[in-house]
Design a protein that fits this description.
This protein has helices at about 15-20, 25-40, 55, 60-65, 90, 105-115, 135-145, 155-160, 170-175; strands spanning about 10-15, 45-50, 70-75, 95-100, 120-130, 150. With about 180 residues, it is an alpha/beta fold. Helix 6 (about 105-115) links the parallel strand 4 and strand 5. The mean pLDDT is about 95. InterPro entries: Isochorismatase-like_dom (IPR000868), Isochorismatase-like_sf (IPR036380), Isochorismatase_domain (IPR050993). This is Isochorismatase family protein. Pfam families: Isochorismatase.
Length: about 180
């Protein structure tokens, strides 16, 4: 199945100020998530950003919020956004959810399992997820794939949202996100 821009939404899980430094690739994760948020914002993809206990872990990285200023930010205490019941009706109304964030094997995994239980088609953006260790990230991705989530890359998401070179934003998106060195 391909990502359908009319049925998809982006969910960014817990990429927060006091948590990012503990990840295996903090700078790369932040840069790749920002790339994804900015590209999908240009395509007007609805976006939700979750924050796990922001009083203790800080808020979403400022660069990510700046890349997608229209994104809705929700707070949670549960590891799963679904269990926390913090996801807006606008996200739940769509059939497909593109998910990235941290930690891959905890909050991302539990959220993905919850979305799958709701009957959603879930796409986990492997290169915009991170955990404290590479082994935990790998185990989380494998488990989500085994459960029925599609594991994708940022470029896969972008090309599927565009659909064809005839898309009105294809040239602009290509020049900005597909040419030269990318994070």
């Amino acid at each position: 199945m391909l990502i359908d821009p009319r049925q998809a939404t982006l969910l960014v899980v817990d990429i927060q100020e006091k948590l990012i430094g503990a990840m295996s690739d903090p700078e790369g994760t932040a840069a790749r998530a920002r790339w994804l948020l900015a590209a999908t914002a240009e395509l007007a993809l609805p976006t939700v950003i979750s924050e796990q206990y922001p009083k203790g872990l800080g808020h979403t990285l400022a660069a990510l919020k700046a890349a997608a200023p229209a994104a809705e930010i929700v707070e949670k205490l549960h590891f799963s956004c679904v269990a926390a019941e913090c996801l807006p009706a606008s996200l739940l109304a769509r059939e497909q959810v593109i998910v990235c964030g941290m930690e891959t094997h905890v909050c991302v995994l539990q959220t993905v399992f919850g979305l799958l239980a709701l009957g959603k088609q879930v796409f986990v953006v492997e290169d915009a997820c991170d955990s404290r260790t590479a082994a935990s990230k790998s185990a989380g991705l494998a488990r989500m794939r085994d459960a029925g989530a599609q594991v994708v890359t940022r470029e896969m998401v972008l090309f599927e949202l565009l659909g064809s070179a005839g898309h009105p934003l294809f040239r602009q998106i290509s020049k900005t996100y597909l040419v030269g060195e990318q994070p």
